[in-house]
């Protein structure tokens, strides 16, 4: 299934005139298989052994291309570096306040909330974002002090 998603993403990029380079493919593949919502620096560090001539700027530029093509979302939570998520299906995130880990979870989308907001305010609602915060299981088990 992962391979199908990757192939569809590659085809979508090609259809918009984006040339598929080995670095671009590797970044896309890393994003598609990563469950950790990596930062650009984490992607760079994971791939630098395979592509020693690739720069952090290359990773950022490709993430921008992927974002514009609708293949990844940029997650900006708090003051931390942006994280990137290749799961474009409707889902939400829970974030650990201690270590910053982000985990996907499914929940019925809040379309009713969008409709209600539009009706009560007259806004044309474009989207919404919900994040849940807490302490992950690993951080709960770390002794304090």
UniProtKB/TrEMBL annotation:
UniProt keywords, alphabetically: DNA-binding, Repressor, Transcription, Transcription regulation, Zinc
Recorded hits in InterPro entries, A to Z, give:
FUR, Fur_C, WH-like_DNA-bd_sf, WH_DNA-bd_sf
Q: Which SUPFAM superfamilies match?
A: Winged helix' DNA-binding domain
Looking up CDD domains in the UniProt record yields: Fur_like
A Pfam family name for this chain? Answer: FUR
| Top-level taxon of origin | Bacteria
* Protein family per UniProt: Belongs to the Fur family.
Task: Give the protein's recorded name.
Answer: Peroxide-responsive transcriptional repressor PerR
């Amino acid at each position: 299934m992962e391979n199908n998603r990757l192939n569809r993403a590659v085809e979508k990029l090609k259809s918009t005139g984006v040339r598929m380079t080995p670095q671009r493919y590797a970044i896309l593949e890393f994003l598609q298989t990563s469950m950790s919502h990596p930062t650009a620096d984490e992607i760079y560090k994971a791939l630098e052994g395979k592509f020693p001539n690739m720069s952090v700027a290359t990773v950022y530029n490709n993430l921008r291309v992927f974002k514009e093509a609708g293949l990844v979302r940029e997650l900006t939570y708090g003051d931390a570096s942006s994280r990137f998520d290749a799961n474009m299906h409707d889902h939400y995130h829970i974030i650990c306040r201690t270590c910053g880990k982000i985990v996907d979870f499914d929940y019925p989308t809040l379309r009713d909330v969008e409709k209600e907001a539009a009706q009560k305010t007259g806004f044309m609602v474009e989207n919404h974002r919900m994040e849940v915060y807490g302490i992950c299981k690993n951080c709960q088990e770390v002794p304090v002090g």
